[in-house]
């Protein structure tokens, strides 16, 4: 005989469903602008309305230099901790963290 779900089962199932839905529904964001600074694993992008501290796995193959106009696609990385911050510690020039999946030179 099959046991009927109790309130605890329903609540746990609802929470799990909400978590899976929110993880899968993460929308990709895109932005365009001019590269201001470049470092080993990213660059600072001025979009005109904000500055983005863009992180990439491999930047060297792209040939991006300051002054290059690019379009990026990825996600804002609003975590408080940044394990990959290898560039200058001058926080006055840093922008909002952005994890790029694609970069296109315009």
Automatic annotation (TrEMBL):
Keywords: Signal. Residues 1-27 form the signal peptide. The keyword Signal applies. Residues 71-96 are annotated as: Disordered. The lineage of its organism: Bacteria, Pseudomonadati, Pseudomonadota, Gammaproteobacteria, Chromatiales. This is DUF5666 domain-containing protein. It comes from Marichromatium gracile. Residues 75-95 have a biased composition (Acidic residues).
